[in-house]
Every structure is written in C-alpha cells, then in structure tokens.
Design a protein that fits this description.
The protein is an alpha/beta fold and about 280 residues long. It contains eight helices and eleven strands. The strands form two sheets. Strands 4-3-5-6-11-10-9-7-8 form a nine-stranded mixed sheet, sandwiched between helices. A two-stranded antiparallel sheet has the order 1-2. The relative contact order is 0.14.
Length: about 280
C-alpha cells in the first residue's frame, strides 16, 4: 500500500509515524486545531534531513509526541527547517513548549570555547532560543528533556560542563541504556510530582555526556534532583520557583521502558499547566 506523506520542516515523514500519536498537523496547513480543547504543545526537534536511519529517528521522536498526547495535549513538531510562517504561527499561539533531546548546544552561547561539545546545530539553537523567549513572553509552561534541561539552563544565563564520563550509554534503540539513581530535592515541584521520602531512590536512564554542576546553574533556577558522576554531583532536575511551570530533567522519561512510572506525573502536570 502506498504511504501518505506529511511535510514537517524540510523532512518528509511517512504520515503514520506522526499520526500514530494523534498528532495535530493543522499548523502545516494553517487551519484550526482538530480539538480546540487540547492544549497546543510545540515540540522542538532536530531537523532529520539526511539522517542515516530516518525510521529509527522518527520512531524516537514519536515517543515525545505520544507522551504529550496520552495526557490530553496536542503536540506540534517543529524543527529549524519548518517554514517561517508555520514557525511564527505556532510560537505565537502555543500553550506549552517541550524542548527535547539531541546534539550539544554551541558553547559560544554560554561564552566558552569548544571543549568537548559535538553535533552542534546552530540553527536548532537559534530556533529553541526563539521558542524559549516566546514561551516567556506568553507565560506558558516549559518542559525540557535531556538537551532540553541544558537549553533551559543556558537560555536562563547558565553554563554547561561540556563532557563527563559515565553518563552516556548506547544510543536509543541500539542497546540497553546506562542507568543511575537520582536524589530528588524535597520541597521542589519535581519532588511533589515524583514523590519524595521513599526508601529507594529513583533509577533513571542516562543518554548524555554533558551536564550542569552547582556553579553552572543559571540565576533564577534551582536544582530539583542530583546524581553522582565522575565530575562530582550533577543536576538531574531543575526548575524555576514560582507558579509558572518551568522544569527540566536530564533523563529521557518519554522512553518508558527505562523510566520509573512516576515520571508520567511530570507529563500530566506539564499538559495540565498548559490548559
């Protein structure tokens, strides 16, 4: 059977990959959302043009969309190749912003030389900085995952440790992930969502080679979870104090096969905050 293809950014995906999540693609055509009651969540992504394994990459992306959709949100994928009219339209009307995983942020954005950063995508950095500013202007919630946590920290004025050993296992879909325990900080929003005071620490997946240490943390953000590393304690969760939902986690909770079920509360709360 012939596939129906969907144009997203500059990459053409089989329509069923995106629609398997119930993803609203109306922004491509400029029409109204299919379900106006569902909060429209912009999901920023890497431009997959020329990716050596597009099917695996698209399946990985679909996990983010699934996580938003199963909690009642309307995910809108956006990458640096998306048409300007589409990008401007969705950023001006979004109800929430999900910054996802991917390559490293250009260290020039936090005033450092390259000391171990790789797979830098300046166009994606620019798109996500623009999305971050639009979200702040509109006062909408933001959730950051892996690179997304790091992006929140950098865009808020912090910096990164450009390489740390031991927190990067096989890439998704190629082997069992690296894992480690985290300590959630009592009294934070993240602790409220994940539960605190349990006898056993939460064990999460690890797909990152960069991190945030205490002195890298941006002014106005607080650490919500920590993990040990060869470079000392790393921030595994961060958030902005106050009523607006701005939360980042260093793990990949959308990869449910290696994530404690408590992280579903994080997605649920994020979508709820966007309503």
């Amino acid at each position: 059977m012939a596939h129906t293809w969907l144009y997203v950014g500059v990459y053409v995906y089989p329509r069923q990959i995106w629609m398997s999540s119930g993803c609203d693609t109306s922004f491509v055509k400029g029409t109204a959302s299919r379900d106006e009651r569902a909060p429209r969540i912009v999901v920023t992504l890497a431009d997959l043009t020329g990716h050596p394994d597009p099917q695996r990459a698209a399946s990985r992306v679909a996990l983010y969309l699934d996580a938003i959709r199963r909690h009642g949100g309307d995910p809108i994928p956006l990458d640096a190749g998306s048409p300007e009219a589409a990008a401007g339209g969705v950023l001006d009307s979004m109800d929430g912003l999900l910054l996802t995983g991917g390559g490293d942020i250009d260290p020039a954005r936090y005033r450092q030389a390259n000391e171990g950063s790789r797979e830098i995508d300046a166009a994606r950095d620019a798109l996500e900085a623009r999305a971050w500013e639009a979200a702040a202007r509109r006062g909408v919630p933001v959730l950051g995952i892996c690179r997304g946590l790091q992006a929140i920290n950098v865009f808020a004025g912090g910096s990164l440790l450009q390489h740390v050993d031991g927190h990067e296992g096989p890439s998704w879909g190629t082997g069992s992930p690296a894992t480690h325990p985290i300590d959630v900080v009592a009294g934070t929003r993240l602790a409220e969502l994940l539960g605190s005071g349990t006898a056993e620490p939460l064990v999460v997946n690890a797909y990152h080679h960069q991190g945030v240490r205490a002195h890298n943390l941006a002014p106005g953000l607080v650490a919500a979870a920590w993990a040990d590393s060869s470079a000392g304690p790393l921030v595994e969760g961060l958030e902005a104090p106050g009523s607006r939902f701005v939360v980042g986690v260093q793990c990949h909770p959308e990869r449910t096969d290696s994530t404690p079920t408590a992280f579903e509360n994080l997605f649920e709360a994020f979508v709820a905050a966007a309503r």
